[in-house]
Amino acid sequence: MATRRDFLIAGGVFAAGVALPASGQAASRGGVVEIRMRSDPTGAKVGFDPVGILVAPGQTVRWVIQAGVHTTTAYHPRNAGHSLRIPKTATPWNSGYLVNPGDHFEVALTAEGVYDYFCMPHEMAGMVGRLIVGRASGPGSLPYDYFDGKPGAANWQSVPEAARRAFPAVEAILEKKVVRLTGFDD
Ligand SMILES: [Cu+2]
Predict the structure, then answer these.
(1) pLDDT value of position 15
(2) pLDDT at res. 149
């Protein structure tokens, strides 16, 4: 497992390195960043690992089932009326249920900004993650429920309390590039 983890961390650091190209050219050569979807044997602890990561515009993010049944689903009104917490020009994703170890789902993210996402069956348990593509901007960089009172947003679902507590801070992601999930032994 150490090899895989080292790959994850090295991949994340590499991603961070190309996230700030001096030329301004997007770095699609950054490879694939992998996020594990985890669950302990009892299902009491679940999460995305890393829970926060900085990637380059154009880079592909791949979520892979390690254990449990999960989804990766963008915070977006098109996903069951959730609030908008990805860049306004980005296409929302929803993997649907991934059930077997190794099952995976990928998106290539081009629009810069903060992307918040959740696992449908475990959002209330705080299974959420945060990606920053290039730089911290857009709806995901704003406070939760910033849209309160705005036309058309009255029916959006609020981000649940457990999810708010689970998101790594934008500043921590920018500083560390990769924020690991806590609460698991490895
Ligand atoms: Cu889950």
Answers:
(1) 39
(2) 60
**How many Å apart are CA 66 and CA 118, to the nearest integer?**
16
Q: The domain containing residue 154 runs over which residues?
A: 2-179
CATH of the domain at 55: 2.60.40.420
CB-based contact 14:29 (threshold 8 Å):
no
H/E run at residue 118: strand 113-118
CA–CA separation, 152 and 141 (whole Å)? 20
pLDDT, one tens digit per residue, over 43-64 is 889 999 999 999 999 999 999 9
Nearest to 68 by CA among 94, 93, 103, 34: 103
**Residue 2 has what pLDDT?**
38
Confidence (pTM): 0.82
Q: Ligand 1 centre from 155 Cα, in Å?
A: 24
25 C-alpha to ligand 1 centroid (Å): 35
Distance 130 CA to ligand 1 centre (A): 14
Residue 184: inside a domain: no
- Give the chain's domain count: 1
**pLDDT under 50: residue ranges of the chain:** 1-29
> 128 near 117, Cβ under 8 Å?
yes
Distance 149 CA to ligand 1 centre (A): 31
